[in-house]
Amino acid sequence: MTPAEMEKRIVRYGDLMPCKTAFIDAHTPGSDQKENFTIIGGGVSESPDQHVHIGIPHGFNIGAAGQPPKCRNSLHSHRTAEVFFVLKGRWRFFWGRWGDAGEVILEEGDIINIPTGIFRGFENIGTDYGMIMAILGGDDAGGGVLWAPQVIEDAKDHGLILGQNGKLYDSKKGATLPEGVQPMPVLSDAELQNYPELSPMDVVGFGVRRYNDMVAMAQKTPCCVIGETGIIQDKPGFEVGFLTRASSSKEMHQHDRPSVLMPMKGHWKLIWEGGQATLNPGDTASVPAGLMHTAVPSMTGEASLFHILATDDPAGPTWSGT
Description:
Blueprint: H1 3-7, E1 10-11, E2 35-40, E3 52-54, E4 60-67, E5 72-77, E6 82-88, E7 91-95, E8 102-106, E9 111-114, E10 120-124, E11 130-137, E12 146-147, H2 149-156, E13 160-162, E14 168-170, H3 189-192, H4 200-207, E15 208-209, H5 211-217, E16 223-227, E17 232-233, E18 238-244, E19 259-265, E20 268-272, E21 275-279, E22 284-287, E23 293-297, E24 304-310
Parallel strand pairs: 2-3, 16-17
Antiparallel strand pairs: 1-22, 2-4, 4-11, 5-10, 5-12, 6-9, 6-11, 7-8, 7-10, 9-15, 13-14, 16-18, 18-24, 19-22, 19-24, 20-21, 20-23
């Protein structure tokens, strides 16, 4: 693979193209300043304006959310895994029918694997623009987003209607539901009984790992963060690995499916048969299946990197909170 061919599979942080109308809460005060990014895969955006950087199927989706201080993402749920790591800023993650069942604060480098089947949201509580990177299970990311009823009701007051076809219509721009398309129904009281109110111990104990702890565990060999044998033991249809300068290796290797490299700290040199490229924090690199490659820090100083690889496990509910 030539350097020019590989560069097409690298999404640079500075080249990310945001969508400000990706979801139903795009006009709702408190959520109207957020930016959503679809980096790899189709994503779960409800807007035709969402730009997809790399459409090649990987068995999972990679996205990101960028928000100014005090901006939040409204309560929603997914049918497959949703994993975040904090690239920039300080973030509060909260969950439950009304968002008050529990919360946790994450700092840069921390990671959270949110259980499927619960309503969750997140808010930038830092003092500057923040960015969180997301991994969603499955090529179709579970078929979209399930919103808490109050989110859909609030959106109507600000001109956005979600159709049952999964698409958004902005009445402020004169859009109406097409003939034959009904509004997305809100979840009934009976359906809401299937969404548990998990305790902080359930969510934090199960799915949160701190950056410094991962660094300590990746001093000799790369650490499996999420996976069947990971420090978060789950099978969401993908594995998340973590390596540092101390656990990086110049030895070339390959995978039988595409893999993704996402630097967290420092600058990394991606080396493959045919060339090399430098990856910076916030960049996302998709390495083709069967390509011999490795990644090593290219400068002195702290260096860490997340590695994502699909598994043969189905991308679906993996933990019910029981």
